[in-house]
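Recap for those who missed Tuesday's class. We walked through two folding examples back to back. For each one, the amino acid string is listed first and its predicted structure tokens come directly after. Nothing is annotated here on purpose, so try labeling regions yourself before you check the end of the notes.
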Amino acid sequence: MTLAAIAATAATPRPSGETPAQQQSRAFQGVGRQLAAPSLATGGDWSLQWLALSPDNANMAYLAASRSANAFAVVLRGTVANVTDLLEDLDVGTVVPFTAVGSPHSPVSVSKGAMEAFNQVVTMTAAGNTLVEALAEALAGAAQTPSVYVIGHSLGGCIATMVAPYLQAQTWQNVTPRFGLYTFAAPTAGGSDFATYVDSLSWVANERYYNTWDLVPQAWTNLDAAKKWYPDPPGPAANDDVDAVITAIASLPGPHGYAQPGNANPLHPDYQSDYDPVMVKKSLQDFMGQVAFQHANSTYLGLLGAPDVLPGPVVRAISANVGEGGSAVVVAGTGFGPGTAVDFGTVPCQDPVVSGDGTAVSVPAPPGVGVVDVRVTNDLGTSPAVPFGRFAYGGPAPVIVTGLSADSGRKGDSVTITGVNFGSDAKVFFGTNPSPSVQVKRTGAPSELVATVPAPTIGIGKPSTIDVTVLSNGYSSPTGPAAEFTYKGL
């Protein structure tokens, strides 16, 4: 699983832009650094041999060799996207024959989307070599009977179930490799004929691991079970919106049945402790946030008792949220170090200076206009955009909600809203409904408002948990778990 998690290193391009070759080079450095880390479960035993990205960055694969054993790992990463996008990308409503392994006794079918992802993986190149050519070169220097493990998490695991039999079908010079297949959190690629075919091949291992609270590996065999998730308390229990989304996703295969290959190894977390405590309210946003947590690489590593991989950079806040081009700005966070680059929106900064402990980087703001996210990139990845990392050229400062007290109640209750940069013109909305009374207690940073809860909107598709937003100085505050309010009694 650690090898699979490492495949997500540097998965997205730098915000200010870089060529596919530049991103591929950055990912190569980052994956190499992860593989060399003695603190990971891999123990620094693996060396990177080859890495390639598809031209549209939808898929990635790398090849690593063990330093201590006659073994190689082919590791696959799929599309980096939210769960709904990931499942829709598989295009499971159409199936095609899987002929890349020759001619099985009878045709076996896979989804059109899985086949397209497979084709990308086996045709993309690095240093002029495809995956098969790179593996052939690596095996040429190996002792007889090397082990080749094909590994993937999420969509990478789905693709692995196709790549592994494809590699078995190749002819290898002077060696007879033994193949193993390990998937984690993988949706299935094909029907029962495909699963039976994969399982009929000779494997040193054919193992499928999945978190029983993870939606993705339920596709496309048991998605409806997720409508009964998550235990409340702590939640989030599915609401009507969640049921509608799952129903829509579950309908995508149409008449086609799907099945999972491999020996099933369910992982059973204790949901009273193994959950995201921020994503527990009964809303579609929190439910999908919890799904993302249960599907994450770090969650699987924890369930398997392995350390997390080296983290990418994270921005916590910036020293000034308002300024002009040339303004001195200190970006505070973690994971900064050699090779750190900073972008204001899509504009790169010049001459970043990183602190010795890697928790701050000083930059002059580049020329720009409007409001932009400040993000940091290095060979391990790019920091996500965060509310306290927004910079406004010329002002006013961005408006942010940091908390509600109380975060549940009824029409007519008073709610104290804390945040930053609220102005005297502040308006408050509970979902789409304006508060009938807003008192501005403090402006600037920190700020405080007291708002009266308006009547809720009741009806099909109208959840009891809604977003609270503050409109002030031309800004609408970002939504998020800290600004969610639940109507009681609905």
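Example two. Treat it independently of the first, because the proteins are unrelated.
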Amino acid sequence: MPGPDLTLLVDAALEAGRIAERHWSRDPQIWDKPGGHGPVTEADLEIDVMLRESLTAARPGYGWLSEETEDGAERLSRDHVFIVDPIDGTRSFIDGQKNFAHSLAVTRQGQVTAAVVYLPMLDRMFTAELGKGAALNGAPLAASGTHDEPSATVLASRPNFKPDHWPGGVPTVHRSFRPSLAYRLALVGQGRFDGMITFRDSWEWDIAAGALIVSEAGGLISDRDNRPLAFNNPRPLLPGVIAANRPIHAALMARRALA
């Protein structure tokens, strides 16, 4: 049986999906965020309000960190924190694509303990609990068994394969891409892809839920310099992410070793 925090996240994600579906492909109102941080839609904001109200009402002692809520220092004093992205892949949502996701996580003292990545238009509910494994629509997940780097499939944008990132040589993998970071991580946990890479600094709300799905599926996830990830930082920005099954993670890091 899922623990109470995971059950809470699943229920909230389902409601987020209902809101998103109501706005999807119906020309939602769109604004540009200050500082070139991309678009936000009325659906993002409506989902954010719903999540904040419902989750913090259920767990009043938990802190709150969301892409669409102004951040503050109060969460830093809390042992437990919700870290959410109301819609990960907003541009895809605006374009009428189906591969956007809701990313919801609970952390305890910087470690993710419960996680959901939900793609409502594709009916895919990825879940994970610390020490209890990961699942897709209730079926257990396992990272892929690929050992050979040339056979590996890796989700990453093209700039991540610039030679200056790889002192040991650019990896000889097959590259693919999905717009949602949370979904990319979930696909690694599912074993559909062997790894994912982003060298860009990444917001915690894009990473937290997917990170637990990867690790609970038996994969490895680190920052771009092979350091473990910790969440609920004063500035919630992580120095890149590399996630993969264990052999491919080791192979990628071997090529990064001189960085």
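Answers for example two:
The chain has six helices and 16 strands.
The CA atoms of residues 164 and 170 lie 9 Å apart.
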